[in-house]
Amino acid sequence: MTVTQNPLLEIAALGQSIWMDNLTRDLIESGELKRLIETRGLRGITSNPAIFEKAIVGNQIYDAAIEAGIRAGKPLLEIYETLIFEDIRQACDIFRPVYEASNGLDGYISIEVPPIIARDTEKTISEARRYFQAIERENVMIKIPGTPEGLPAVEQVISEGINVNVTLLFSVKSYIDAAWAYIRGLEQRVAKGQPIHNIASVASFFLSRIDSKIDDRIELLRSKGISTPEVSAKLAAIQGKVAIANAKIAYQEYKKIVESDRWQALVPHKAKVQRLLWASTSTKNPNYNDVMYVDELVGADTVNTLPPATIEACADHCDVADRLESNLDNAYTLIESLKDADIDINLDRVMDELLDEGIDKFVQPFESLMRSLEDKAKQLATV
Predict the structure, then answer these.
(1) What is the Rg, in whole angstroms, of the alpha carbon atoms belonging to the chain?
(2) For strand 201-206 and strand 108-112, is the pairing parallel, antiparallel, or unpaired?
């Protein structure tokens, strides 16, 4: 396959940026990250505590830096931050040409504030400021969970000129709330006469976890016994389809927001739209198409962040077309069908559960990483 035949580059031509959901030091130092920019058209990177846990634990490439931290008497959290901040800085530098060529639209590296503060507004604001100042790169993007406590932090740090990736968004309402938090932050800057052309944000809208949760509900209903072929057909019609329908509806809300008077008032100040970013895009069910969260959601002014395996799968066999606004009536009908008496799945409750679980999925690897660093520190201290 030549570069010109790469479906990932066809996606870029339709207005969607491909970011990668992975970052390790060996990826940086081996030159592989630069190669992926050149051959796979990568436009940015997202990271999270789970990714860093996998990168650091069991990887000797970090041992020298860990040992140096131990010898200097640094606490474990500071050692951890030394490791990840350095990776983020190097990745920002590698993506700097992308950032400049896109006029600050792409080329960002996302780093998440500690997940243990996801429910604390003031600590989130404080840590976002500290991360942004410590990393010292224009193209770093601070990830803040889209919790009720996180969204006021988003507004505040945007007003201070900090790029934000609003993460862990599951419901359409949570996306809308995130979008308005971004807009309010920009409006505060404009009111103070401060520039907004150099600020960027994405709203990370999660996909596969929704289908996994809904599919579990479907299997539970089936386990109770299905009395008619009609009920069976209703369940089959929603299985593996809710996340994409939900994302298509969210995109329609995005279009309404950028057409609103408040957004249009920011356009003369060269405000950048807060793009929807499709996250959690690896297909969890092996019976589903492994690139379905790519093929079905290509559209203008969006980002899709893919793990390495999905990037390679897409390069090999994505069927690229602008489908984000296709079959919209079906999307709305499908979401409404969850209220059917035979199905009775409360989507709001599902989304709330996913948000709580999503925070836990980042807290657990963060705490595990701290324990692993402590163990590694003890081992290295005895050498």
Answers:
(1) 21
(2) unpaired
Euclidean distance between CA atoms 333 and 285, whole angstroms: 23
Secondary structure letter of residue 16 according to DSSP? E
Give the integer Cα–Cα distance in Å for 372 and 57. Answer: 7
Which H or E element spans position 256? helix 242-258
Tens of pLDDT, residues 2-14: 445 789 999 999 9
pLDDT value of position 226: 65
Sketch out the chain's domains with CATH numbers: 3-207+244-324+353-381 (3.20.20.70)
Half-sphere exposure at residue 114, Cβ-oriented, CA atoms within 13 angstroms: 17
pLDDT confidence band for 227 (50 / 70 / 90): low
Q: What share of the chain is helix, strand, coil (3-state, %, to 5)?
A: 60, 10, 30
| Strand (E) or helix (H) holding 313 | helix 308-317
Single out the residue of 281, 298, 325, 305 nearest to residue 21, CA to CA.
305
Q: Tell me whether strands 201-206 and 164-169 are parallel, antiparallel or unpaired.
A: parallel
Which run of H or of E encompasses 230?
Answer: helix 229-238
Q: How many residues does the chain have?
A: 383
Question: Own/partner pairs for 329-334, CB < 8 Å, 24+ apart?
Answer: 330/245, 331/244, 331/245, 331/246, 331/248, 331/249, 332/245, 332/249, 334/237, 334/238, 334/241, 334/242, 334/245
* Nearest partner of 66 among 363, 375, 367, judged by Cα: 375
Residue type, 59: N
Q: How far is CA 354 from CA 16, 184, 305, in A?
A: 26, 26, 19
What is the distance between the alpha carbons of residues 23 and 109, in angstroms, rounded to a whole number?
A: 9
Range picked from 32-36, 49-53, 61-65 for highest mean pLDDT: 32-36
Tell me the mean pLDDT in the region 317-332. 96
CA-CA distances (angstroms) from residue 196 to 136, 254, 260, 299, 310?
18, 19, 18, 25, 34
Q: Give catalytic residue positions.
A: 143
How many whole angstroms separate alpha carbon 255 and alpha carbon 259?
Answer: 6
Say which range, 45-59, 88-102, 190-204, 262-276, has the weakest mean pLDDT: 45-59
